[in-house]
Write a structure and sequence with these properties.
Elements (H helix, E strand, L loop, with lengths): L2 H4 E5 L16 H14 L5 E3 L5 H5 L4 H9 L6 E2 L5 E2 L3 H20 L5 E4 L21 H11 L6 E5 L6 H7 L5 E8 L17 E6 L5 H19 L3 E6 L16 H18 L4 E5 L5 H16 L2
Parallel strand pairs: 1-2, 1-5, 5-10, 6-7, 6-9, 7-8, 9-10
Antiparallel strand pairs: 3-4
Helix pairs in contact: 2-10, 5-6, 8-9, 9-10
The structure holds zinc ion.
Length: 310
């Protein structure tokens, strides 16, 4: 197979236009670092323009009031929704494109146009709950994608893998009574948002592996190898979705895990192998966090290198 039929990337210029402020960690330069590094490392990789998510696609996981807040406020300057989360003039369009990327990627992968997809988008999504935008996140992009796979395509087993250094409280809360979706997360604890304890199990479809500050690649690989990947294996996912945050890297300023880019390559290789065994190789990954631009560039290249491996 050619690279183009194995992996495609989704992004949109509007995702640069979400401007939470010059001192905010979740800055437009993050996305430029990711797309620049990927275009340089993989010049033949096909890039697709992310469509807007529809209101109907968003309403599968969010309530009307959150849609109204994000889409209809139309602020003429940046406004804070909470101490971390900003709605600025370009934010609604960015949020629509970020969520729409995941929907389009799921459609492309499930229709066989490509085997895997990486969505280089922002704002990130995994903290947004059904009703609340929080933690830099407006809409929960990976949850919108998972719900689309279940509701539109009728899948009964969708796995969401979240290796961002923060726990994806929003994704967990959206699916914690929905056995069609398995949510597996490694994250630092204690750390924002202080959820993701091992005793949070949903209806048996949630598995959290909190890691203490200072944990490095060895400890990270151990929890995935011994605790999380065996759960993925017995779930037999029909589709693997990935919340790909790269803020567990040792250079990241927002947390204290000590991963290297090679650790992301290792886990991604394991996820691709699982997708190949159970899901026809089908995997959609979406960018979440990652706040050191050098680490973000190196880690996303390591991640995509593994996604391309066939
Ligand atoms: Zn994060």
């Amino acid at each position: 197979m050619t690279a183009a039929s194995i992996l495609r990337c989704y992004t949109h210029p509007a995702c640069i236009g979400h401007e939470p402020g010059a001192t905010h960690a979740e800055q437009p330069a993050r996305l430029k670092a990711v797309t620049g590094a990927l275009r340089e490392a993989f010049p033949l990789l096909p890039w697709c323009e992310a469509p807007r998510a529809t209101r109907g696609q968003l309403l599968r996981v969010h309530d009307d009031a959150l849609l109204a807040l994000v889409l209809d406020t139309q602020p003429d300057r940046a406004m804070s929704l909470d101490p971390d989360t900003v709605l600025a003039p370009g934010s609604a369009e960015a949020a629509l494109r970020a969520a729409g990327a995941g929907v389009a990627a799921v459609d492309a992968v499930l229709s066989g146009q490509t085997r895997r997809a990486f969505c280089a988008v922002r704002p990130p999504g995994h903290h947004a709950t059904a009703t609340v935008a929080m933690g830099f996140c407006l809409f929960n992009n990976i949850a919108v994608a998972a719900a689309h796979a279940c509701d539109k395509h009728g899948l009964a087993r969708v796995a969401v893998i979240d290796f961002d250094v923060h726990h994806g409280n929003g994704t967990q809360a959206i699916f914690d009574t929905d056995p069609r979706v398995l949510y597996l997360s490694s994250h630092q604890l204690p750390l924002y948002p202080d959820t993701g304890h091992a005793n949070e199990r949903g209806v048996g479809n949630i598995v959290n592996a909190p890691l203490p500050p200072g944990t490095g690649g060895e400890g990270f690989r151990k929890v995935w190898r011994e605790r999380l990947l065996p759960v993925l294996e017995s779930f037999r996912p029909q589709l693997v979705l990935v919340s790909a945050g790269f803020d567990a890297h040792r250079l990241d300023p927002l947390a204290q895990l000590q991963l290297e880019a090679d650790d992301y390559h290792w886990l991604t290789t394991e996820l691709v192998a699982s997708a190949r065994r159970h899901a026809g190789g089908r995997l959609v990954s979406m960018l979440e966090g990652g706040y050191d631009l050098t680490a973000l560039a190196q880690s996303s290249v390591a991640h995509v290198t593994a996604l391309l491996d066939d």
